[in-house]
């Protein structure tokens, strides 16, 4: 037994040091080299920080594009999904409530035209992006609220569309924070 116990303890200690000390220090060092120095990339307007580039934020005013719903109320410290399945009655009620709210604020949009991303929370609860369809379906509400032409806002959405990485990896997307910042500049 002694023959196996001592080597097992040594290996355990070596892996504790590697996994609990060296690896976290390595990751922290790499993060310092990333944009934002490992603290996230902040977005500023006129010298004032208005949010983070890669973290979803809550927009509920009719004059703004709404983000994807969050299962954690956009709390980056508690990133998570709801873990409720598609047949869970609480989840279905929550989705129906989101559909009803969307229709109240966008009365010309039919239920079938609402992209699912606008009524279902993401796995992280912090998605900063929408599909172009998720943005375009909100244009009429925003145009009416801001007394702007829908064509002008459609053009703004089109300018903000980010193509997939190398044209292959991922879908087209629109960063909601950046879009709303540009919308405020548009006036």
Strand order of the largest sheet: 3-5-4
Mean pLDDT: 89
Tell me the domain tally.
2
| Coarse morphology | elongated
Number of helices: 6
Task: Catalogue the unreliable spans.
Answer: none
User: What is the percentage of strand-forming residues?
Assistant: 5-15%
Main sheet record: 3 strands, antiparallel
The succession of helices and strands, N to C, reads: HEEHEHHHEEH
Rounded to an integer, what's the Rg over CA atoms?
22 Å
Structural class: mainly alpha
Helix percentage range? 40-55%
Count of DSSP strands: 5
Quaternary status = single chain
Span between termini: 77 Å
What does this protein structure show overall?
With 187 residues, the chain is mainly alpha-helical. The chain folds into two domains: 1-39; 50-186, no CATH class. Helix content is 45%, strand content 9%. It contains six helices and five strands. The chain has helices spanning 2-33, 89-105, 132-136, 139-146, 150-160, 176-186, and strands at 42-45, 48-52, 129-130, 161-162, 173-175. The strands form two sheets. The protein has a three-stranded antiparallel sheet. A two-stranded antiparallel ribbon has the order 1-2. A hairpin with a 2-residue loop joins strand 1 (42-45) and strand 2. The longest helix has 32 residues, at 2-33. It is elongated, with a radius of gyration of 22 Å. The model has no long low-confidence stretch (mean pLDDT 89).
């Amino acid at each position: 037994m002694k023959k196996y116990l001592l080597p097992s303890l040594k290996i355990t200690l070596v892996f504790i040091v590697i996994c609990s000390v060296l690896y976290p220090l390595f990751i922290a060092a790499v993060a310092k080299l990333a944009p934002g120095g490992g603290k996230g990339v902040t977005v500023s307007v006129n010298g004032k920080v208005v949010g983070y580039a890669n973290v979803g934020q809550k927009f509920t005013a009719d004059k703004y594009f709404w983000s994807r719903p969050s299962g954690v109320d956009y709390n980056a410290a508690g990133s998570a999904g709801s873990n409720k399945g598609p047949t869970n009655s609480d989840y279905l009620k929550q989705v129906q409530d989101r559909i009803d709210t969307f229709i109240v604020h966008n009365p010309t949009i039919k239920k079938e035209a609402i992209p699912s991303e606008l009524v279902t929370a993401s796995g992280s609860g912090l998605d900063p992006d929408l599909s172009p369809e998720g943005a375009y379906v909100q244009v009429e509400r925003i145009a009416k609220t801001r007394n702007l032409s829908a064509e002008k806002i459609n053009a703004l959405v089109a300018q903000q569309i980010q193509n997939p990485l190398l044209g292959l990896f991922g879908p087209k997307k629109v960063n909601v924070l950046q879009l709303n910042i540009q919308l405020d500049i548009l006036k």
